[in-house]
């Protein structure tokens, strides 16, 4: 039964409802969107007993203040924004029961960038193109296509369950500097040998102008062999565009579906969650790996999640 579970007392910086994204609509210009850090969202869902792809709240940098309208189990994974219930700090990467009338709030950002609040029974919002994810640019999905506002009411199908926690080996460490693995290409001919060498040997910094669409990086200029432009083609998650400025842009969850800037590489899917937790100012280096290695790493991560999910049922 649809039940009110939280009232938004303060909305935070840009709290949105996100699941694992909407796929199959790129040809119509619709971004997949979804959680920037899908690993943390799925781990939270596992801890509270949801399906791995259930929608939760993505909380970047400054968290919301939520009043519980019903007893419900929650888990907070990903970035550590010092979560509290009634001003008492609560553990990370563990399910916990919040009781009706209690207040969930956040404080100092200690690690990472984005926390994910998974709620037992999920969040009851309409599916739009097979997903509950908020697509901010398109202004649809989630709660009326926007970030949460003060006074919003969140609905769900709440329940409580015994507390669960993760072994520390499943909890990622968010580091600065950060090395992310890449597949080099697909426009190698658009860059000089010096430009390609610079990409794989120099350090870049994530700019404060970064957002859900993309991470703008600053650092040594990547040298093109001629113009930076290409005939527009499809863009993958993690694609690294290099406009005429020579400063790379890593395309993230809400990236556009096509683009006309040359791409020097693509961040592998297995490293997207760690990249999503990198704060502005984080130093980033790129390491080239083989396509087969990238595929093996992705398969291994999916197998691990599915194994843990089966154990939790």
Largest sheet: 7 strands, mixed, barrel
Order of helices and strands: EEHEEEEEEEEEEHEEEEEEEHEH
Q: Bin the helical content.
A: 10-25%
Derived from helix and strand composition plus strand pairing, the structural class reads: alpha+beta
Low-pLDDT segments, ≥5 res: none
Strand content: 25-35%
Count of individual domains: 2
Quick tags:
313 residues; Cyclophilin; 4 helices; 15% helix; elongated
In short:
The chain is of the alpha+beta class and 313 residues long.
Write the layout of secondary structure elements.
Blueprint: E1 3-10, E2 16-18, H1 38-48, E3 56-60, E4 65-68, E5 72-80, E6 84-85, E7 88-89, E8 95-98, E9 103-105, E10 111-119, E11 153-156, E12 178-184, H2 193-201, E13 204-206, E14 214-218, E15 229-234, E16 239-241, E17 249-251, E18 258-261, E19 263-267, H3 272-276, E20 283-288, H4 291-312
Parallel strand pairs: 12-20
Antiparallel strand pairs: 1-4, 1-11, 2-3, 3-10, 4-9, 5-8, 5-10, 6-7, 6-9, 12-19, 13-14, 13-20, 14-17, 15-18, 16-17, 16-19
Q: Describe it for me?
A:
The protein is of the alpha+beta class. The protein folds into two domains: 3-170, no CATH class; 178-301, Cyclophilin, CATH 2.40.100.10. It is built from four helices and 20 strands. The chain has a seven-stranded mixed β-barrel with strand order 12-19-16-17-14-13-20. It has a six-stranded antiparallel β-sheet with strand order 7-6-9-4-1-11, with no helix packed on it. Helix 1 (38-48) runs parallel beside helix 4 (291-312). The longest helix has 22 residues, at 291-312. The two termini are 22 Å apart.
